[in-house]
Amino acid sequence: MERIVMTWGFIPEENTSDTIYCGDAETSGTTELNFEIIEDSCKGIDNDFNVKLENSELWDSESSFYAVLATYISGYMTRTVVPSQIYGGYVLVNDEPDEYSSSFKIIDSEAGVFMNNMQEHNGKIFLRYYFEEDGEIYEELVCVSSINS
Prior knowledge:
Layout: E1 2-10, E2 19-21, H1 25-28, E3 31-38, E4 41-44, E5 50-52, H2 64-77, H3 83-93, E6 105-107, E7 113-115, E8 124-133, E9 136-146
Antiparallel strand pairs: 1-3, 1-8, 2-7, 3-4, 4-5, 6-9, 8-9
Helix pairs in contact: 2-3
């Protein structure tokens, strides 16, 4: 089985953690939501998000998928995240950056863990992305961006 896994998170301004563990919001002091895309649906792993989608919607900044996902993430994080920003992170980690990706930067990470030295990423959103096939993880990346920049 193939699946895409995305963790969307926010690192609060007052965060004191020097290490962010994607998928472990309690330890990292972050706010996070985890999603998986399998075939024609995107479902929350740790939440009740569930939306049908066409593969082509992943490559369209104006697709209804990104609008629905942005609304859901914004409601949980109590910060406004716009659809084009979510799209921009997605296309960047898939090696197809465009003008919506310009605020994101891919950072060094290993197994979803990255450094927050001197709280350099505080106040930013992040995306951890990976592709999984038959239990093997490929293309794991983390990128960060100022919110709505």
